[in-house]
Write a structure and sequence with these properties.
single chain; five-stranded parallel β-sheet; about 600 residues
Length: about 600
């Protein structure tokens, strides 16, 4: 190396670095094995060689191996990124070469100082062959260091044997050459296998690290997607909420048929946009793990009748038949989530069926019931039958016609089925039709609870507190609720609500509170305080956010959640249910403030 040349560390993880790592790790074990043989050699040669020579040899042997052990500790304590592999390779070669030369000196001295006793030389040569054989089979050896040991140990011995005028020593010389040639062939093959193994292990580790990095990147991208949807959804839902409420209120007030047709067209477009937003929301809620399963025992006919009511007219308008086979089976699952799965199946069948019809029926299979939706549509190619469950994947819609939806229905179905742990399947043949099936466990008829039908009654006498900071939404919500007969107390924040409630003779029956409000309070905290002040009152949290933290917080607090844009029919039903449920609860006689 030229003077003043910089020596830089080789990046860790190279094949040479791994080989040196294994090589230095075996130093202590190698010394522990060599020490008994050294003692044996000294004892065997005590009568053949001068004791002074043997003493100096033993001191040199111990000194060199002590230096090798110190080098091993230094190597282990040096961080991999700071090791200069070329320097440590030279140290490995030098250490092994000096260790082998001590044996070579002993072998050559035995031949030169005691030529009349070749048996001693044969014993020393036998020790050489044992060490050389063990090392050539050792997968952790560093080949240049090994050859340095062979040269240092065998070279002087064979050279001394070659100088002797004896058939025994000539034979020893010939056997030594044959032995070196043999171990060189074996050693080269074993070293190649060892290097290949190290390289493959390093490649496996590199691929594993790449996989972990890519997995982390995908997880971060998914979290970023959830955060983006949460933010974008809130901003989109604010104006959408006001539009839905205003259109609903306008439709209820108009009596002129021409104007009602225009409003109905507007309402259809608004409902379509609302459905698209709700589909995105549903996928995000499943990804966030905040969808709650509420299992119960119920007649499957309640779900089938609802399907018939919703899809029969739409099918007739398209010139298709829609038939639901009656069933008296009782199933155990979440009725709302089951209906959503089957309605997606029916909607998909209706969308892709041009002639013929759709059949919904049940098959009993032991302790389970398979609910199937048959259609006579275009069918699904075999290679697409798994792809249709991916988000935004649609067949026969290359122009991305939004009138055909976003392609999220079956993606939601698959997530829902996994959440319920219900097997789902699809069978299809092109030009003949498809069969979508969901298998649910059978329920116990004795545990069936007859749910009270939700009536779309007027809310006359119901006092509703609305806390919403957006003036347009607050006004539209008030207009809609007043049209249903409710008395509305509208406020932009908790302080305004406190002032409004102070003028009331009684507490509100239901509070509709937006999640995002100006100031330190959010909707969950305000509803919790209202619940403490008015034990008989109910609360509904309204939000445009779909972030998992918000959903978990609201669910943990036990409040009903409605996402913007709110569907008026669902809001009306929920308000009526909460009002009736709280009618028998004790009511606070005095008006309390909202802190």
């Amino acid at each position: 190396m030229p003077a003043g040349a910089a020596v830089t560390a080789t990046p860790p993880g190279s094949v040479l670095g791994q080989v040196l790592e294994q090589h230095f790790r075996t130093y202590k074990r190698a010394v522990a094995v060599a020490l008994p043989f050294a003692i044996l050699a000294i004892w065997v040669l005590r009568n053949a060689l001068p004791h002074t020579f043997l003493g100096f040899w033993a001191a040199g042997f111990l000194g060199i191996n002590l230096v090798r052990c110190v080098a091993e500790r230094h190597f282990a304590s040096t961080p991999p990124e700071k090791r200069v592999e070329r320097v440590w390779a030279l140290r490995a070669i030098a250490g092994h070469g000096l260790g082998g030369s001590m044996w070579g000196i002993l072998g050559a001295a035995t031949i030169v100082l005691a030529p009349e006793s070749p048996e001693y030389s044969l014993i020393i040569f036998f020790i050489f062959t044992i060490f050389a054989t063990f090392q050539v089979a050792n997968p952790s050896r560093y080949p240049p260091a090994y050859w340095a040991w062979i040269a240092g140990a065998v070279g002087p011995t064979l050279f001394a044997a070659m100088l002797q005028d004896s058939d025994v020593y000539r034979s020893l010389f010939a056997l030594g050459l044959i032995f070196v040639f043999t171990v060189s062939l074996v050693g080269r093959h074993s070293h190649r296998m060892m290097v290949d193994g190290v390289a493959k292990e390093m490649e496996r580790q590199r691929l594993m690290e790449d996989l972990i990095r890519q997995t982390n990147a995908l997880d971060e991208a998914n979290r970023a997607k959830t955060r983006f949807l949460a933010a974008a959804s809130h901003d989109l839902r604010q104006p959408m909420q006001a539009t839905v409420l205003l259109v609903e209120s306008l439709q209820e007030r108009l009596r002129d048929s021409e104007h009602r047709r225009i409003v109905e067209s507007i309402r259809t477009s608004v409902v379509a946009m609302s459905a698209l937003l709700n589909a995105i929301l549903d996928v995000s809620k499943f990804d966030a793990g905040t969808v709650k399963v509420e299992r119960s025992h119920f007649p499957v006919s309640t779900v089938l009748d609802r399907l018939s009511s919703e899809f029969a007219l739409r099918a007739r308008q398209k010139g298709l038949g829609f038939r639901v086979r009656p069933s008296n089976a009782v199933v155990e699952t979440d009725p709302i989530l089951l209906y959503r799965i089957l309605s997606n199946f029916c909607n998909n069948a209706l969308q892709y069926t041009a002639t013929g019809g759709i059949l919904v029926g049940c098959r009993r299979r032991g302790r389970e019931v398979a609910i199937e939706v048959w259609d006579t549509g275009a069918g699904i190619p075999q290679d697409q039958q798994r792809e249709i469950f991916r988000e935004f994947h649609q067949l026969a819609n290359p122009q991305r016609d939004r009138g055909q939806g976003l392609g999220l229905g079956l993606a939601i179905v698959e997530r829902t089925a996994k959440l319920l742990d219900h097997p789902m399947s699809v069978r299809s043949r092109e030009d003949l039709g498809s069969v979508f099936s969901i298998t649910v466990p059978r329920g116990d008829p004795r545990q069936v609870r007859i749910a009270e039908a939700v009536r779309a009654e007027a809310l006359d006498g119901c006092i509703v507190l609305v806390i919403e900071d957006e003036p347009e939404i607050r006004g539209a919500m008030s207009l809609l609720l007043e049209g249903w007969g409710a008395r509305v107390i509208a406020a932009a924040n908790a302080a305004d609500a406190d002032a409004e409630l102070a003028m009331l003779p009684s507490a509100p029956h239901v509070a509709l509170v937006d999640y995002r409000l100006p100031g330190p309070d959010n909707g969950v905290r305000i509803l919790e305080r209202l619940r403490q002040r008015y034990p008989g009152s109910g609360g509904i949290l309204i939000t445009g956010d779909i972030g998992p933290d918000l959903l978990r917080e609201a669910q943990a607090a036990g409040f009903e959640i409605m996402h913007k844009p709110v569907r008026p029919a669902r809001l009306r039903s929920l308000l009526g249910a909460i009002w009736r449920r709280g009618a028998a609860a004790p009511r606070a006689p005095d008006v309390a403030t909202v802190p």
